[in-house]
Amino acid sequence: MVQDYEKAAAPESRIYLLTGPIRSGKTTALSRWIADKKKVGGFLTPDINGRRVLYDIGSRTHVPFEVDDTAVSRNEYIRIGRFHFYRAAFDRGADIITAAMQQPADIVIVDEIGKAELKNSGFAEIVKQLIRAQRSHEFKGDLLFVVRDTLLKKVIIHFDIQSYRLIGANDLPGRP
Fold first, then answer.
1. Once rounded to an integer, what is the mean pLDDT over residues 134-142?
2. Number of C-beta neighbours around residue 94 at 10 A
3. pTM for the whole thing?
């Protein structure tokens, strides 16, 4: 599917779409890539001990994200498919992104834009704000969005991403 969008992709774009199949190593590659970077902000959603966590790149801290639905009150989580996520973690993710824009970071990462965002839930609003801020030059850094390959076309259309560079886990910008 990546090849379908290469014609629309712009090599000079400052929006990177890191794409690939589910569980293909996108988050792992990003985690390694940011290890020695200083002016990177945003968050990753690595799988630790079988649960997704929100990893704040700036503070290098983990925030609980995926939850066992029997462990908390129903109004404390959002269900996305078979997964359950703390509502408060989505707010924390938005705060992380806002802080990264204000620092400002050279690149802001959102891992990942998925089904919830396509339903205008999850991180949808902060993703829209990021794109608007970059278009208006309020935010001058690059954006890197992780998008699974099966949702790529829908994400591009939904968020009106007009200029972007498609990359895989082995193509991270500035990678040696």
1. 91
2. 17
3. 0.88
